Each structure stands twice: as structure tokens, then as C-alpha cells.
Amino acid sequence: MIQENWDDSVQKDVINMLRKIIPKGVWLHDRQDGNGDAHLKAGLVGPSQSIPLIDGRLGLSQWQNIFFCEFDGPRSRRTIICTVLRDDK
Fold it and tell me: For residue 17, how far is the Cα from the chain centroid?
């Protein structure tokens, strides 16, 4: 997720909002393994971001940063894949 990074209240607000709109323990999938909310939150936030590189730097505004959203964990290991596309114009 790309979000404001100047004030950590924004990240806390995102977490609190997701907890309110997608609570734990009320989903059909919870009968399987108790993580129905994690699947729904991950689907809402999405699995990826596209960020342009501008003069070799991430094209984020002054206040933005990239946040890894972990809804089913923490896990001892996660793999993050970064793909760089080059434009030969």
C-alpha cells in the first residue's frame, strides 16, 4: 500500500478502519482456518503496486512511502518480488 508516511496516525487509521469494516471471526472461511478477514482485507488492498522510477528514484511524493500489509501473520518468512520495466524510447 502506498500511504502518507509523515504522521503514523494515518497507518493506524488504515488498520483501525480495516478492522471495523472487516472484523475477525464472522466469515464463512473462518470455519476452515480462522483467517477469513485476512483474505478479504488482502483482496481489498490488493497484492501489488506500480511505482514509476524517475531519474533512478521512486516516483513517490514527499509524504508517501510503501507499506507492506500483512493480514495473516506475522510470518517468519515472506517473499517480495520487485519487477523493473525498462522503456527504451
Answer: 14
Q: What angle do CA 19, 22, 26 make, to 5 degrees?
A: 115
pTM of the model: 0.83
Residue 16 is assigned to a structural domain of this protein: yes
Helices and strands: H and E segment counts in the chain: 3, 4
Q: Which amino acid is it at 81?
A: I
**Domain range spanning residue 56?**
2-66
- Grid cell, residue 30, equals 473462518
- 51 is a domain residue: yes
Q: Using 50 as the pLDDT threshold, list the residues of the chain that sit under it.
A: none
